[in-house]
Amino acid sequence: MAERGRPRGFDADAALDRAVEVFWRQGYEGASLSDLTEAMGINRTSMYAAYGNKEELFRRAVARYAEADMAYARDALTRPTAYAVIEAFLRANADALTRADRPPGCLSVQGGLAEGGDNGHIAGFLAESRLAGERALADRLARAVKEGDLPADTDPRALARYVMVVSEGNAVHATAGAGRAALHATVDIALRAVPGHDAGAPGPA
Question: Which of 36, 55, 98, 194 has its CA at a distance of 20 to 30 angstroms from the CA of residue 7?
Fold first, then answer.
């Protein structure tokens, strides 16, 4: 038997995907419960029963986004060299930020804009989500230093932070209307600062 308030044929994952898009376009504060339930095709009772409150729905939406839309970041970490890791991440990120079938920019950046109504809980949650990705990249770069793939004096945390600054900056510009070619041009310049860039392949595929 369906949960009380849940419509027949309710697809929790599909509804969550629609919530992702609302939060992505409008941010956490800008997305009203009416906006969310209308997009998800459910009433408030169903939303609360399936996902909890608005904050819990947002956290689940971010997890869904990380699993599906950020899969390229996990794939990049498997590349054989540090340069290849960074290039793969930044190139795929530029493509992801400008997908025709998704809102421009990045949910983890856009979602927290104009946030401030909950004592910073959402902003802190998003910052920690981004830092988790940065730490994973730093760990991979630290391994590259130990293996001799990066110079011994490379600071893997600083390099990982640099890469994330580029990706997050591109996300802001994509939201403001910058196109894919413009983002890749930024990546071209950023990659020149990465050790091993002389051996890297020029430009996106």
Answer: 55
CB proximity list for 79: less than 8 A, separation 6 or greater? 85, 88
Mean pLDDT of the chain: 88
Residue 113 corresponds to which tokens in the numbers above? 């804009």
Tally of residues, the chain:
205
Q: Are 137 and 160 in contact (CB under 8 A)?
A: yes
- Among 175, 171, 136, 140, which Cα is nearest to 154's? 140
Largest CA distance in the chain: 62
Is residue 124 over pLDDT 50? yes
Looking from the CA of 48 toward its CB, the CA atoms found within 13 Å total 7
Cβ atoms of residues 22 and 65 within 8 Å = no
Residue 185's identity, in one-letter code, is A
Dist CA 132 CA 9 (whole Å): 36
What DSSP designation does 205 have? Answer: -
pLDDT in tens, 182-196: 999 999 999 999 987
Q: Which pLDDT value is given to residue 114? A: 52
pLDDT tens track for 45-95: 888 888 889 999 999 999 999 988 899 999 999 999 999 999 999 999 999
